[in-house]
């Protein structure tokens, strides 16, 4: 067990829209903000008084600004998320959704907020049947009812200290003044150019002059700045049934296809009544205990918490844990995820996360990779003695081709010890490719996360008002009731394996947190082949192939962000050193 201690929290009191700190105690006050301070992009930062890690320097700076002005972790997380909507608009935005896991230091409790998109009321289990996946990706049909704005409002109302208007301010500044186009933004725009040009609004915004903005140029989004300003003024009602909502519905039902485009763009089913009906929801977190630590995650409709949790329980039941065991535990947990987890009543969450079930599943892990596919288990409370271990992998070629680098994750902690782990997404990189005309943001295509079917009994078939199963896994670990670690990643269903692998690296393979994030990755999701980065193959490929594993190359898996509580108030914020161009970790104060 890793034991860390953390300083006691203070309470923040909101008075008339400004934040007062109460009462002053021995905890160091943050330094006054220096207007012209130069802040560089670095993947690791250590210090005190609060910390943030995102994939992007502007977003991390937005969070830091809020923290330094007395805001708490929730305030800062929303500010960072809104800024990512400007600078990482292909991964995040106000028309997307996400999941927040939040540790409330004052009450010592973990909460979650589900801001997942919903299917329109007119959607049935057959609505996506027979539609080619690639066609659904760029369509009005795949746009879910956006959850992010409702989630931001709920998070700020329940746990924040500033208004939505205040939280949007840093993002408005970045959208107005512009940000510097980096290689990642350029590459993502170029990869999407063929479909962006098929929509007049998207081409006008992201292909100025017909091409992606050049690396090093300044990219402004005044329409998004205006949208955020109005959102701050009118509140979420403007979207959930008001004028902005009407514009979204119009765009979904009648996408602004460029004249002459030959793309078959299916219209969506969304109505203003679907927007009116949308609610962000507080849900109990998932929790498992691993070597004495409490690992909290996101419950359904995300499969993140249950799948990471089940795999950790399986690993805990094994005498030794290495990369082979990591892959096998993940394989088994994914088999159960596929059969049992979705936005349906009766997900057997308690049993999926029980030690008895984990022990039964762990029995299947032998010296060699198990046969593909691993069957789902029976999380029924009646657990058998250990059966004979399965053996012999069946080499096949197919792996899930659909998972890309989409989505983003951020972590923030504040001087009081509150912690936010937040996954936000518009699903595909570039969402459905359709910018709402004049508004400066892309729509999501989250409904492609449903199983298209026909698939009788699949818990993830679409349905009216249903939330597609997610893999997002914002995770907070407590030790003795105090924060120890918070982490998460983008990457579709590889999110789960990235979070799991980082925890295995940190706790079982003796790596520091920066090493655990930088280490080469592999992802086994009950597929015939394990996808792996080249450096993972170089390091473990021969050994694992000899044990029956079979691999396919995946050039880059995940883009994690994390923070570790090192004890005595010291924080270590960590981002990727190189994946997705590297992330940005910042602390409020490098010295106590
Ligand atoms: N759209 C990515 C996920 O929800 O897992």
From TrEMBL:
The protein depicted here goes by the name Gamma-glutamyltranspeptidase
Matches recorded under Pfam families? G_glu_transpept
Q: Where is the signal peptide?
A: 1-28
Quick check: keyword Repeat in the entry? no
Q: What is the lineage of its organism?
A: Bacteria, Bacillati, Actinomycetota, Actinomycetes, Streptosporangiales
Which PANTHER family does the entry mention? GLUTATHIONE HYDROLASE, GLUTATHIONE HYDROLASE PROENZYME
Query: Which residues lie within the region annotated Disordered?
Result: 374-405
InterPro entries membership: GGT_bact (IPR051792), GGT_lsub (IPR043138), GGT_ssub_C (IPR043137), Ntn_hydrolases_N (IPR029055)
UniProt keyword Hydrolase, yes or no: yes
Any single GO molecular-function term of the entry would be: hydrolase activity
Residues folding into a coiled coil are none
Which protein family is it in?
Belongs to the gamma-glutamyltransferase family.
**Bias (Low complexity):** 382-393
**Keywords linked to the UniProt accession:** Hydrolase, Signal, Transferase, Zymogen
